[in-house]
């Protein structure tokens, strides 16, 4: 058995005085590299007797074939729109998309990423909210770091604090602040929030935005004003049922997602309340259904397909640094007829 130490691609890059990404591309021959840089890398590899990692080569060879998209729930119009945008970009590059659903389960998300690595997808786009969970963050980083070292690319939608990935970041906090301020301008002073699970970063950021705006206007949003359900229509319905059971006197119900707002409006109607005559309801995202509801939903509009497109573009562009690029996407408050000035005290 030889005593020669194992030579890594990092050793080759260091000797050739090029970046790790350039060394990988030169060795694998899958992306155009300047002739002088290629020669330096190949010379360094020969000098060090570098043997390419078989998996990394296979991964690079797959780079013109498959990419992975991980979402929480493809039946949710939010994720359907993001995925459609990502798939449109992949199609322009002649790539096949492998779609994985997690149902907002952190363990399933890790399993999906592991499976995409095993399938040698050349890029992975995470479209779902991250989890406010340190152990999950460490486990996901442990999955993605060796994948990136082998030539894989990663991009994420929404805040993923510890992954150092290229990020498309909708302005969740800022959009929520703008919505709360808009409802205050309409004359509302009593608010409740129908919210999803607090461990999702998207939920945490939107609730924080509501709180910050209202606090700046002299209105405290306490835990008694928050009603949590699953991050879907049924969760919105159940959380609103809890709000009604608590006899909350809100004139405006802020929800953290349009799908939850749909459930909230249904629960209010079942209780004999009119939207917006008895209570105003707002959403977030502007899914296509939002404008077709009766009444149409006031919401924070995000360009959902664009979010998916930009995430896939970042994932396919190898020009990012190790710390990751961030593209921030603002939202816009769209006032529709699910909200109005408070007209009378809501019935108990």
From TrEMBL:
<dbReference type="InterPro" id="IPR010982">
    <property type="entry name" value="Lambda_DNA-bd_dom_sf"/>
</dbReference>
<feature type="domain" description="HTH lacI-type">
    <location>
        <begin position="7"/>
        <end position="61"/>
    </location>
</feature>
<dbReference type="InterPro" id="IPR000843">
    <property type="entry name" value="HTH_LacI"/>
</dbReference>
<keyword id="KW-0804">Transcription</keyword>
<dbReference type="Pfam" id="PF13377">
    <property type="entry name" value="Peripla_BP_3"/>
</dbReference>
<dbReference type="Pfam" id="PF00356">
    <property type="entry name" value="LacI"/>
</dbReference>
<keyword id="KW-0238">DNA-binding</keyword>
<dbReference type="InterPro" id="IPR028082">
    <property type="entry name" value="Peripla_BP_I"/>
</dbReference>
<keyword id="KW-0805">Transcription regulation</keyword>
<protein>
    <submittedName>
        <fullName>LacI family transcriptional regulator</fullName>
    </submittedName>
</protein>
<dbReference type="InterPro" id="IPR046335">
    <property type="entry name" value="LacI/GalR-like_sensor"/>
</dbReference>
<dbReference type="GO" id="GO:0003700">
    <property type="term" value="F:DNA-binding transcription factor activity"/>
</dbReference>
<dbReference type="GO" id="GO:0000976">
    <property type="term" value="F:transcription cis-regulatory region binding"/>
</dbReference>
